[in-house]
Each structure stands twice: as structure tokens, then as C-alpha cells.
Design goal:
Elements (H helix, E strand, L loop, with lengths): L7 E3 L6 E3 L16 H6 L9
Antiparallel strand pairs: 1-2
Length: about 50
């Protein structure tokens, strides 16, 4: 499977798109953030993106 064929979502914190990862296969429906940093901020002010 090519990277472009993977499912993707928009990060709830920074608004950037991110792709499915194998480690998220069991919880993909619950994943909302592209990184641990965005998950920690959760308020839309993730420094470092952009």
C-alpha cells in the first residue's frame, strides 16, 4: 500500500492533515491529534506547527 492511499484526518489542535499509522489500527476512530504535543495542548494553540 502506498502512503497516499492511507486514510487521513485533520488534527483537532493544529489543523494539519495526518495519515493513518499502524500503531493506531485498533483505535483509529478515536485518534484526533497528529502528535503527542498536539494532544497535550488540545486548545488549538500548538506551538511548533506552521
Amino acid at each position: 500500500m502506498k502512503k497516499g492511499d492511507l486514510d487521513s484526518k485533520i488534527c483537532a489542535a493544529c489543523g494539519r492533515p495526518f495519515a493513518w499509522r499502524k500503531k493506531w489500527r485498533a483505535v483509529w476512530d478515536e485518534v484526533k491529534y497528529c502528535s503527542d504535543r498536539c494532544r497535550r495542548t488540545r486548545n488549538g494553540r500548538a506551538a511548533g506547527h506552521g
